[in-house]
């Protein structure tokens, strides 16, 4: 039993120390899974730590007691800090913000910021249509595809959420770790469009933003088919997908960032949701130390493991280095395009994000507020990149983020 006490307390202590370590990008992307596991399972590490302390106290394994208490205490503090009230909705939408949510919609939302196990709502009346073409590249047979999640039997709320997956602008695809999230949104009546946009080096920033805007145009054109109000289209995503979503959402009429075939089409959106999206592209360039990376041939589609080698390569995305083309890095910053009429924005990121510098998100939020745009910036302490994709039914930051998304969408649904 003494050994058991030290094992339990030691595990809890080890996991708590992962909160204090911010790995470098050079170590590799896979390293983020360790702090992600620590955060997602923090309630259970707390229970394990307390169990180790109790077993140690009973069996006189005295060093296991402070080890277990420290590990459990750290996890409890983490849980509390991730799920406490942040006041962002009141600042963005006023003191009576919750009155803007219809009672029927409220009943379908997550009711608490965290539960020991969240049974994410899912409706049996959910349709998941896969690999629907939303655009064909001119002169080719290549089609861009999306998945559509939507309610059936007249259950549509009227709101559509277009989601762009995380990618580092270079890798991954739609339908990656998001099924519980999408099912939950559809259970509230929302329609979800999960987009597979093109990546570097096949296209650059113009191609990606163009794909996002084509998704908006397609959803508005097909709104009646899914019971969607074309004036209630929300754009969002994770990581690089969030960056592209913000650029597209803030520039519906920008001539340089809008394909010619969409020049006379309404591309405006009613809101933007960013899960840890890059907001300062030059800071990201320096963070990745891209100057040392080899050149890459453009216009070529790269798949599989090779695609990850280009993740984060803003020099490919923008066509060069910031000292050579500063105007492109300025163009790619979402904050450059923020103005008074920009759509309401929900920003969420962990302060230990080792892939995306947090300072850019803070400055973007400040710019939105200064411009009079309703904006919420939720910073989760001791939390890594991609926190929403791992065990969302348990993870405190993932659940708290879902709580925010539910309310943000409900407000936009009823906003005139």
Description:
Helix content is 40%, strand content 13%. The chain has 416 residues and is an alpha/beta fold. The protein has two domains: 2-83, no CATH class; 88-414, Alpha/Beta hydrolase fold, catalytic domain (Rossmann fold, 3-Layer(aba) Sandwich), CATH 3.40.50. It has an eight-stranded mixed sheet with strand order 1-2-4-3-5-6-7-8, with helices on both faces. The longest helix is centred in the first third of the chain and has 20 residues, at 64-83.
CATH topology of the largest domain: Rossmann fold
Give the C-level CATH assignment of the largest domain. Answer: Alpha Beta
Radius of gyration: 22 Å
User: Helix tally?
Assistant: 15
Looking at the overall shape, the CATH architecture of the largest domain is 3-Layer(aba) Sandwich
Q: Assign an overall shape.
A: globular
Question: Strand percentage, roughly?
Answer: 5-15%
